[in-house]
Amino acid sequence: MTGAAMKEGAVSDVNPNPNRPDPIMTVDGAPFWRAANEGRFVAQKCGGCGRLWHPPRPICPECRSKDRQEQPLSGRGTVISWVMPIHPPAFGFDQPPVVALVEVEEGLRFVTNVENVAPQDMRFGMKVEVAFATTRGGHKIPVFHPAKEG
Amino acid sequence: MVDRNSQAAIVGIGQTEFSRNSGRSEQQLMAEAVLAALDDAGIDPKDVDGCLTFDLDHSDEVDLMRNLGCREIKYTLRTPQGGASSVTTLVHAKKAVESGFCDVMVVWRAMNERSAYRFGQPNLQIQPNGKSSTFIEWCMAYGAQTPAVWEALSCGPYMNRYGVTSEDLGRIAVLLRQNAATNPNAWFYGKPITLEDHQNSKWIVAPWLHLLDCCQESDGGVALVITRMDRARDTKSRPARILGAEYAFLNNHEIISDYYEGDLTDLEVSRRVTERLTKAAGISPRETNVAMIYDNFTPQILRQTEGFGFCGRGEAKDYIRDGHMDLDGRTPLSPNGGLMGEAYIHGMNNITEGVRQLRGLAANQVKNVETVFCASGVAGAILGL
After folding, report:
1. Is the ipTM of this complex over 0.85?
2. Do you know which NCBIfam families this protein is assigned to (chain B) (predicted)?
3. Domains and CATH numbers, chain B
4. Segment A31-41, tens digit of pLDDT
5. B157 vs A contacts (CB less than 8 Å)
6. Contact B121 A88 (CB under 8 A)
7. Cβ–Cβ of A113/B142 closer than 8 Å?
8. Distance from C-alpha of B121 to C-alpha of B118, rounded to nearest angstrom
9. Confidence (pLDDT) at A103
10. Residue of chain A nearest B202, judged by CA positions
């Protein structure tokens, strides 16, 4: 992990949702969550052909390699969809979260949250950058904040 | 294409009452619905040799046989993908009886959904597994915990691109509730809504889904009996032939949480089904007389109306506003009131309504019905006399 990645992923001082559920981790998904817990936002990279995949999977559909590696992502992306669950309230959230679908520069899409933004300022096509939120069990998971520039 | 004598037909439909608390087991709902369907067909339970339900159904094949007295089953199947399974069951039932795999197939869905587990509430017991739920791993920690949230997130790009307004969605809810209001079998019988009611109903998922954009939650059981036309000659009720039934499942696409592949404003899966279905049935969904389209949430009606070729992309909101899916329109939408108005038995009560429309016995009977289209996103079927 690079120092820059850690800095990029610094946790916000104010956690709007300290009771956020911990991630559910499957055997095949766990590497993504473990990297996040160390402050790294990564995709699965195929050791055979170099393609990136999300959600993670044990076998590359392009070359059938089982060699799973990690690729750090730039953390920059675009909101391609967003919603706010109001009723029933999302379990573990004291404030209704902005749930978003973010497409990152590398072309992969992630279900995530956009934080540090007022709902009325949410826009399709909004530029965002990765940050990390803390769950009730102390895990760090990737979320996004509005991009500081551009 | 099979000849008419060997073609599959729905010869029996059955159901329990639709409620918010059935007061009895799902096993009992299953047995009551299947027996009602067999009685409707005039077929002895001892002749049942195939059975099919959803992988999410809690009732059991062993119990089905024990309650009904079936002797020997030659074929059983459970279909994945939640409510998308509803029309998928017809795809398998048709092929099973036409191939001779079995002769009399019963299809059922029985659930105490409203009183026992409510799909609309965050479910903390749900685990990523083979019951179409692996996506949960990527959603739960972000507060995407209910079907309404998953659906709204996947519909957003469509809504945004085509400028669909909440009023556009509201017109769908008003239409379905208007149909339910004159269907004594519907939970919302006698309870139509106005566009104002829709607009004033609480937010479920901002900025797309108000309460009245979401289907209700229900307890109940629904069943079908399917056999070949040569055997259908002896049945009590008029057979509804399954002219075509097709299904598609596309790489990197999920069902309700369809986020990861391609242009999210398009419903490619429905277009693929339409191509094959039109070829198999000899007519297209648009040429049928009644459209029973899975209405878990109002945006689904827009996307499927386009996906199954009733109108062009981005045109569904205007197609509906112009009355083409009204009871007296070109292709009436769910005259029973759909899942929003009649009951949410995971789509199966939309199929029984299709059969009633063909028999000419529906509460809101459309005139001169010769063909009915049934759809649940990934699957489509055309029924005919």
Report:
1. yes
2. PRK07855.1
3. 4-117+215-384 (3.40.47.10)
4. 999 999 999 99
5. 80-81, 124
6. yes
7. yes
8. 6
9. 98
10. A87
Decide if A129 contacts A23 (C-beta within 8 A): no
B137·A25 Cβ contact <8 A? yes
B115 Cβ contact list (under 8 Å, min separation 6): B20, B21, B22, B219
What is the per-residue pLDDT across B10-50, written as a single tens digit (0 to 9) for each?
999 999 999 999 999 999 999 999 999 999 999 999 999 99
**Half-sphere exposure of residue A121: CA atoms within 13 angstroms, side-chain side:** 10
Q: Read off the tokens for B369.
A: 């019905």
Q: Answer whether B175 touches A (CB < 8 Å).
A: no
What is the token pair recorded at B28?
Answer: 């009992």
Distance from CA of A18 to the nearest CA of B (A): 12
The DSSP result for B77-104, as a single string, is EEE-SGGGHHHHHHHHHHHHHHTTS-SS
**Residue A40 lies in domain:** 3-7+17-146
Q: Which two tokens stand for residue B289?
A: 């007389």
Return the amino acid letter for A139: H
**Pairwise CA distance, residues B340 & B18, whole Å:** 12
For the beta carbon of residue A49, count every other beta carbon within 10 angstroms: 12
Compute the distance between CA of residue B220 and CA of residue B267 in angstroms, rounded to an integer. 30
Whether B127 sits inside 8 A of A24 (CB atoms) is yes
In a mutagenesis test of the B interface, which of A37, A82, A111 is the best target, namely the one with the most B β-carbons within 10 Å? A111
Token duo for residue A28: 């095949």
Task: Say how many CA atoms lie within 13 Å of B110 toward its Cβ.
Answer: 28
Q: Residue A12 domain-assigned? A: no
Q: Which residue of B has its CA nearest to A85?
A: B205
Question: Does position A150 have pLDDT exceeding 80, yes or no?
Answer: no
In a domain, A116, yes or no: yes
Is the Cβ pair B122, A25 closer than 8 Å?
no
| Predicted TM-score of the model (pTM) | 0.95
Beta carbons within 10 angstroms of residue A105's beta carbon? 11
Q: Tell me which residue of B348, B351, B340 sits closest to B382, measured CA to CA.
A: B351
Total domains, chain A: 1
Contacts of B124 in chain A (CB under 8 A): 21, 91
The Cα-based distances of B23 to B37, B216, B258 in angstroms read 21, 18, 36
Name the residue type at position B322.
Answer: D
Nearest by CB to A82, from B134, B156, B204: name it: B156
The residues of B carrying an active-site annotation are 294, 344
Q: How many CB atoms lie within 10 A of CB B313?
A: 16
Q: How many CB atoms lie within 10 A of CB B279?
A: 12
Other beta carbons within 10 Å of B144: 29
